[in-house]
Known about the structure:
The chain contains five helices and seven strands; from the N terminus they run βαββββαββααα. By secondary structure, the protein is an alpha+beta fold. It has a single domain, classed as Gamma-glutamyl cyclotransferase-like (Hypothetical upf0131 protein ytfp), CATH 3.10.490.10. The strands form three sheets. Strands 1-5-2 form a three-stranded antiparallel beta sheet, with no helix packed on it. A hairpin with a 2-residue loop joins strand 6 and strand 7 (93-101). Helix 3 packs antiparallel against helix 4 and helix 3 (113-125) packs parallel to helix 5 (150-164). It is globular. The N and C termini lie far apart (32 Å).
Amino acid sequence: MKYFAYGSNLLSSRLRARIPAQSFGMARLSRYVLRWDYHSLDGSGKCNVAQTGDPSDTVHGVVYEISKSDVPTLDAIEQGYDRIEVVLNHGGKRVSAWAYIYTEPAASRPPYTWYKNLVVEGAIEHGFPAEVIQSLRSVASVPDPDTERPSKRHAERLVAEARKRPRDG
């Protein structure tokens, strides 16, 4: 099945550490905007998308192919989000995929720096437009007060590895 990632799962090594997945590259979700209004149990903001209905609004993300048998695992990882079907623009074609959306958002909350870095590195990995990457980089983030948080340490390793890989351009 097709899965549309727009948050920390943009970074393919992050998603593949969780479930097997094959990337089909960048796609755009029209009439939505990216927000940081999912309040994680760790106290930080995580990515979410909100429907606006405005055709000029677009969220860039990545289409992955995942096995149906891995959906329960991804559902558990994305606990708190609802899995919904969305229609994407993928290389000029309309593609249907599943996405995780938090339907009861609150005020945006700053993400932890390690989480934001996963999102930024995923956008770079998949060749997002420069203005999208700059917009992601400009999001205010805060240090994680738990310096030993396992997810923080893992994310920092993944980001360091991503930054060592050769980049186009």
